[in-house]
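[job 0412] stage=complex_fold ligand=phenylalanine status=START
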Amino acid sequence: MKEQLSKIKSEALAAFGQVSTPAALDELRVKYLGKKGELTAVLKQMGRLSPEERPAMGQLANDVRAALEESIERAAQKLAAAALEARLKAEALDVTIPGKAPKQGHRHPMYIALDEIKDIFVGMGFTVLDGPEIELASYNFDKLNAEEGHPSRDWSDTFYFDRDSRVMLRSQTSPMQVRAMETMPLPIRIIAPGRVYRKDEVDATHSPMFHQVEGMVIDKNVTMADLKGTLNLLAEELFGKGTVTRFRPHHFPFTEPSCEMDVQCHKCGGAGCPTCKGEGWIELLGAGMIHPSVLRMSGIDPEQWSGWAFGMGLERTAMRRFKIADLRLIFENDVRFLEQF
Ligand code: PHE
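[job 0412] stage=complex_fold status=DONE, emitting structure tokens
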């Protein structure tokens, strides 16, 4: 019996050491330790031994069983470790492979121009305001000195929401002058960019929706010289040092005196070409000294305070800044166009 036991032990240990799958290991466990296994068969013969032999043989049989169980345990661990290793290898990720780059959008040239304008004015101490596109006619017209009957109030020019022409899509950013005067402490320095709407047909220079930037300063002893100095600086910062401007007299109901500022054409240097329609100049903005009645209507004493304001077309500025020939390109959002800026 002793030989039997040691034979089983050495055979089993050798077999366990070579096993390569969990299923095969399980089969071997059944073969040696199962109910009908080889070791079990030997143990069943114990009864035939004499009482003197039994303890020593029992001890030996238990030792063999323990050795087999321990060996099975070790083999199982080895198999599990190998399986894990194999899985890690199979599922390995190469983190150095370049990823798929998401398609990036592109900043719109008009907003690039707007950011530049904001930077220029914020640098001079201006605050940037946002205002409603759906505006009261009283703010768009009345409080800006454009009374009933003023041509710009006509239904053929303006988008109204109601029959009595009280609520409208703002036709200019100038109502933000009034909103600033009514709510902000003096002195005031603001710009207010945003969309405006007019009943215009779409062509190379017109659109029923476009953008303006309003600017306004109210302080003591503010003069036309401040207006010209600031707007000349704006032109040079936007379009480059030495940019030539000219101020022409004009009329707006809410400024007196009023003017328009032109920039010399970048294409022909003032000689006249298709870009400037032969003029040599491109109109950029309207401006002027705020009319005393407008100050008074917003509760500001024109004897103590004076101010200037301007309103510039943003599309036009971006077209001049980036040498874009057709306004429609600004709105079409063709990526091939936008990517160029
Ligand atoms: N609001 C005027 C326009 O749309 C421009 C302007 C603004 C003129 C401020 C003078 C002062 O044409």
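Strands lie at 127-128, 134-136, 167-169, 188-197, 209-219, 245-252, 255-264, 281-290, 306-313.
[job 0412] exit 0
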